[in-house]
Amino acid sequence: MEKFKYKEANGCAGICCHGCGKMDAPLNTFDWLADVPGNYEDTDIVEVQFKNTRKGYYKNSNAIPLKKGDIVTVEATPGHDIGTVTLTGRLVLLQLKKTRLTPESEFKRIYRKAKPVDMEKFAEAKAREHDTMIRSRQIAKDLNLDMKIGDVEYQGDGQKAIFYYIADNRVDFRQLIKVLADVFKIKVEMKQIGARQEAGRIGGIGPCGRELCCATFTTNFVSVSTAAARFQDISLNPQKLAGQCAKLKCCLNYEVDAYVEASKGLPSRDIELETKDGIYYFFKADILKRELTYSTDKHIAANLVTITAKRAQAIIEMNKRGERPESLSSTGHDDKHSFDLLEQENINRFDNVGRNKKRRKNNRGNDKGKRQERKNNDKGGIKEA
User: Which residues are registered as beta bridge partners of 284?
Assistant: First the structure.
């Protein structure tokens, strides 16, 4: 029973300690079945990850004992490639379903664990990637091709390179492939990617202060529309809605379902509320708080009144019966007044900290002098008496 006890590794306690690893790439998967008995005996298919957003599945036909984090040499066309094992065992079968593969599909083989010689060639190939990218951009410009080469990935043995490019329209790069193959003496593969994928490969920090989602965990890019911003009552400002890829931010889709669900019970924004003191038009809504703000003018903010969705629905029912309440709020006053903190406090109050301290110190000195003066006057009065 000793082997079934909880273990600790990498600072965490739990059964799946072997599945823990550095989650530093968007394709990493937490192996929560790592310590289950017989996990590695279910399949000989292994998930291997390469640079950035590329990974593949290979067959461990030689029964090499592999674990997460091992660097292996795998079959490639032509030659061989070098990658890192990111997943083994039973969870690989579940991952295959995402790629529409089955265990009976044909997989390339894992040759061996990487040797020092393999790692030296791999390091030499990686060192050439940046210079190759810069030079290939100049070659594409000389050929008048409307495309941008965003990244280059060399194969582990240096015999092949993948050129990732971005293009708005269809590009005939047959001549470019011939020139690149002749200049760099390698086999060339061109792969088109989108703006979001390029941002994920480059990385960066978003306006939220965190690393870009596309560079950390997002792998499937779902289309984002302005309807997501409208449902959340976000201002349709292109500069604020666009990310570093110049497309709409992926995070706009994160909470849109919650807002759609929360807005189902709210009355329609086209309905006008009639009271004895006038007609009120919809101005804005706080969907999560379920509060609506109405204005007496249809186009500008005038005499704003904020009420709950329940109160608005009750007034709508009264208007349908031909009745009109005295006012929007049930008590005759606004349910909630919106205000700006900057209207009540001076924003420069934080800049006068030193000056305020000095002023308080002077005031304490003046008060002390006044008290001493009063004491002296009292003593003088006693002596005269």
Answer: 293
